[in-house]
Amino acid sequence: MECSGVIYDTINCAINRTTTDCTSLKLVFSNSSLQTQKLAKKFLEKLKGKNLICLYGQLGSGKTTFVQGLAKALGVKKRVVSPTFILLREYEVTSHQSPVARKENSWELETGGWQRLTHLDCYRIESEQDLKSFDLKELWEDKKNLVVIEWAEKLKKILPKERIDIKFEYVGRNKRRILISCQPPVSSYQ
């Protein structure tokens, strides 16, 4: 199943909003790993100006698969695996193709100015202190980084207010419920 226009519009609405123009919460479903990766690409196409994505969900719910889709869309050449044991991996972003110029089936798209995809996995940490060797604030304040954090709930005390939260839920063998929300949430809905 392809990512439909409805999913594309949903992502557009969830990400590209001001404080009054759209609801900050969107729910989509994925029926396969490939569809989750395609959803990540569609998501990335609308992520202009934002660079912190926090991922939540149980083991096997699709977080790393989503990051693989982001990496593929950004032209990352290395194999993307979750950095569970080393905590952080950085990948060079190589895609500079304009969304208008790309072929419909092409994965790569304009980078939005990002030079690195920074993938952080907090599964094994006990507290924020376990990450004191990383300057996390510097990572997400540098607009050249697209920062993606798996198990972001373990950093809830130090996460900036402005971010995109994505919650993954295992629904069935291949089906995932994916909830996209902008932080801070908007106070009015249309």
Mind explaining what this structure looks like?
- This protein has 190 residues and is of the alpha/beta class.
- It has a single domain, classed as 3-Layer(aba) Sandwich (Rossmann fold).
- It is 22% helix and 23% strand.
- It contains four helices and seven strands; from the N terminus they run H-E-H-E-H-E-E-H-E-E-E.
- It has helices at 5-15, 33-45, 63-73, 136-141; strands spanning 25-30, 52-56, 88-92, 116-121, 145-150, 163-170, 176-183.
- It has a seven-stranded mixed sheet.
- Helix 2 crosses helix 3.
- The model is unreliable at 1-9, 13-23, 97-103 and 186-190 (pLDDT under 50).
Relevant terms:
190 residues; alpha/beta; Rossmann fold; 4 helices; 7 strands; globular; disordered N terminus
Lateral strand order in the biggest sheet: 1-7-6-2-5-4-3
Element order: H for helix, E for strand: HEHEHEEHEEE
Q: Any guess at the CATH architecture?
A: 3-Layer(aba) Sandwich
Domain count: the total is 1
Question: Care to count the β-strands?
Answer: 7
* Outline: globular
CATH class: Alpha Beta
Query: Roughly what percent helix?
Result: 10-25%
